[in-house]
Amino acid sequence: MAKAKVIVFDLFETILHDIKFDFNSGLLYLHENILSKDTDKVEFLHYASTYWKGLYDKRSEDNSELAFEDELLDFKNKYGFKVNSSVEEILFNCAIEMNATELFNDTISTLEQLNLLGIPIYLLSNSIFKRNEMKKFINQYDLEKYFVNIHFSADYKLRKPHKDLFKVVFDDIKKADTTVEKGQVYFVGDNFEADVLGAESFGFTPVFINRKHNSDTNKKNFIEIKSLSELLEIIK
User: Fold this and answer.
1) What is the mean pLDDT of residues 73-91?
2) 215 and 226 part of one domain
3) CB hemisphere CA count around 145 (13 angstroms)
4) Are 165 and 156 in contact (CB under 8 A)?
5) Quick one: three-class SS letters along the chain?
6) How many CB atoms lie within 10 A of CB 232?
7) Which of 7, 29, 127, 169 could cross-link 97 (Cys pair, CB 3.0–4.6 Å)?
8) Same domain for 131 and 55?
9) Which residues have CB under 8 Å from 145's CB, separation 6+?
């Protein structure tokens, strides 16, 4: 096993606890605050839950990603907006409405220790929101400063475990250090298929963060940790 030269983190349930994800809360925010006053609530929610849900469901077939921005612009064309807020501001507010989050207790201490060790760290996460909105989202917790760069699937129309999304972050890593080999990049994530198997398929060294202590998931005996603090013991 190669020694870790770079660490790449997943976001949700890896460094940020997603207490609750509720897509409908974002839609209700739009109806109540953004869409034209004459927009029928029932018709709007039905349209979102049929046409757009069908598009989202197709993502699992080819690991493509659909940005919520596309859905919002469709709503704007179909229903109109009653406010002059920027699309970026509306998207950020939707992200806040949909996600109830908090930092894990060991997130900041682990990121700070990795920075002190001089190990470059990156972020690669599946998200229907693009970098501009997610940058604001993670900076609720002042997180961006710890990463060399941050990447989100919505910007590339691909989602993990698609190999080309892992290639995005590896190409970024190589810009800073051409000597880094794939196996020296440790990818830390909680989703076994998307993060662990996806990272292995690309050639990264996967680290499965198993906060839920599931005993029947890691059949291939990949590196497994129960908390981020354990990562420091492994890379040392």
Assistant:
1) 96
2) yes
3) 6
4) yes
5) CCCCCEEEECCECCCEEEEEECHHHHHHHHHHHCECCCCCHHHHHHHHHHHHHHHHHCHHHHCECCCHHHHHHHHHHHHCECCCCCHHHHHHHHHHHHEEEEECCCHHHHHHHHHHHCCCEEEEECCCCCHHHHHHHHHHHCCHHHCCEEEEHHHCCECCCCHHHHHHHHHHHHHHCCCCCHHHEEEEECCHHHHHHHHHHHCCEEEEECCCCCCCCCCCCCEEECCCHHHHHHHC
6) 16
7) 29
8) no
9) none
114: tokens are: 């990795």
User: pLDDT, tens digit, for every residue of 169-187?
Assistant: 999 999 999 999 999 999 9
Q: Which domain CATH number covers 177?
A: 3.40.50.1000
102 is written with which tokens?
């908090």
Residue that terminates a domain, selected from 99, 114, 147: 99
Which among 52, 82, 99 is the end of a domain? 99
